[in-house]
Amino acid sequence: MKKLKFLDKFLFLLNSLLAFALLLSYLLPHIPPSNFPLLSVLSLGVPLLILGNVLFLIFWLLRLKRHFLLSLIILAAGYNYVVAWFQIGKKNESTTNELSVMSYNVRMFNAYKWVDDPLIPEKIQTFVNEQDPDILVTQEHYIGETGKFKEFPHSYIKLKDKGSEFGMAIFSKYPIVNKQSLDFPEDGNNNSIFIDIVKNEDTLRIFNVHFQSLNIKPGLQDIKDADSKQLIGRIGYGFKLQQDQAKILKEAIDESPYKTLVLGDFNNTAFSYIYRYIKGERFQDAFLLAGSGFARTFNLNYFPLRIDFLFIENSIPINSFEVFPVDYSDHFPLMARLNW
């Protein structure tokens, strides 16, 4: 009996630590990474903290112990925060005036042969053709495969540097009347571009964004083999760069006189500072309005990670949202249908 009581005490201590960590994570969207970069790393582990508290809640309920109240109160206090990770299935609608938008980090169409499959470019092309979006934005775009999207009569492709073969791209079935690159100052392939399209005299501005990568490898063994101090330091530094890039993007968004969409790879979660900073009061997260399940967008082996987003102007109804679990890249494509 004493052993059982000791085990209960130990489990409740572990429960308390997880509950406190989850409570602490509620502050992360309000703290700029430049102030506490190491604390910002906690945002990547929020799904595990949520799951741990849910499991403890169920465990104590089954044991008929009042200990369940701890996790229940913490989860309830951050309800809107918690549901950013998981959504119960939403009813999809359709209208005659729809605009479908897709975001896809294509990982350079496997140009460096990360996957032993020479048909990856053709598979991506076939997938896009089958889904038939009106707007396609791609990150880590390889210029050598641009010709595969001939069904889009209009496009804007911005390579990071002269002589580079990689960059950002937006493909459109509607005429592009304006286009611009924000040109993030850091080296690498991270950037944001936007276009303006017109339909029936209504102008829509569409941003494609790719924030600084944190260089997290998808395999669990990769995490085990990595030097923990170097990994955390690298992630913290990446968060600080993301904050600088987000400031550039936010200024451009605030200058937009049109209804606006922000699509792309944030390389960060819905529990982060930059998610809250960019979304603000102006946008809806398409997953929260019309998604279901975990909406895992990064092919990580050990838990569902959503780091790609479709932010839609509040005044635009969202009819449906879907993430497609096709393994042609380390990211999964996501698409929403809008009433426009």
Automatic annotation (TrEMBL):
The chain crosses the membrane at residues 39-62, 69-88. Residues 102-331 form the Endonuclease/exonuclease/phosphatase domain. This is Endonuclease/exonuclease/phosphatase family protein. Pfam families: Exo_endo_phos. Keywords: Endonuclease, Exonuclease, Hydrolase, Membrane, Nuclease, Transmembrane, Transmembrane helix. GO terms for molecular function: endonuclease activity; exonuclease activity. SUPFAM superfamilies: DNase I-like. It comes from Antarcticibacterium arcticum.
